[in-house]
Amino acid sequence: MDTDYNLNCLLGSMEIQPRSTLQQDKNQVHQDRSIIENEETLEWEKYVEEVQEIIGYKFKDPSLLHQAFTHSFSQLEKFESYERLEYIGDSVLNLLIAKKHYFLHPDLPPGKLTRLRAANVDTEKLARVAVKYDFHKYLRHNKPLLKGQVEEFKDATLEYPLHSTGLIDPPKVLADVVESLIGAIYIDCNFSMDTTWQVVEGLLQPLITLANLETHPVTKFYEVCQKYGWSVKLIDTWEETGEMEVFVDGKFAGKGKFSGKKLIALNRAARNAYCEIVKNLSVETTSDDRACNETQN
């Protein structure tokens, strides 16, 4: 008797939603989802038009462009990520640049050809392309820190208009997007290297040439020390201070700081030490030592 009474009280206190109301709720959810998907579709159609106008190429298969701008994140994945397109785009870009330099400089040895190609396809160069055309605006991602990283990188490039040769830290995702875009173009144009190059050559401007190709700061520093028979010692306090210090023949020569990456701190230390040597000693300078003077001024 008590059980029946308690059960009746429990059922009486529950609000039973009619079947028709439940169906209305389901329909509303479906409608809301459809509205969101339609808005996303319209937004992407706009993005496709904008990107095509920027690069001067119209896609036969726009889904390739969607894929090229989709970062690998599982919870929102509607299209495949750009990773496979990035893979093929990287290879195509290297071949295109190698082909250009091979015929442009018939007497240039492989070592210098390699340096020239690397300067035009490395992460910093491609990240500069991405920010120049605001490609990060079209990237589908869930990287909340990306906006700040992009702004920091853009500010850093102001000090080095063409290339920093390892002194600043470009967000790799920016370079990835450029490579994936190149891969998408290559596939969409039925693997035409000529068509792909027509687009890529415009995107990469200004290309780094033999006339403005700078030597890596670590290479320059060690070359001048070797030439004059100077001993070099590095003091590594990066874990504690984010700094690397350089001593030449037992005397402090320079230091570099960058808490984000030890390699960049080392590059900056070598650059600083080299510039101090150029400033204080009568050593033979190179054409790109003007950057030392600009930094000091």
From TrEMBL:
Its cofactor is Mg(2+); Mn(2+). Residues 48-190 form the RNase III domain. One of its GO terms (cellular component) is nucleus. One of its GO terms (molecular function) is ribonuclease III activity. It comes from the Eukaryota. One of its GO terms (biological process) is siRNA processing. Keywords: Endonuclease, Hydrolase, Magnesium, Metal-binding, Nuclease, RNA-binding. This is RNase III domain-containing protein.
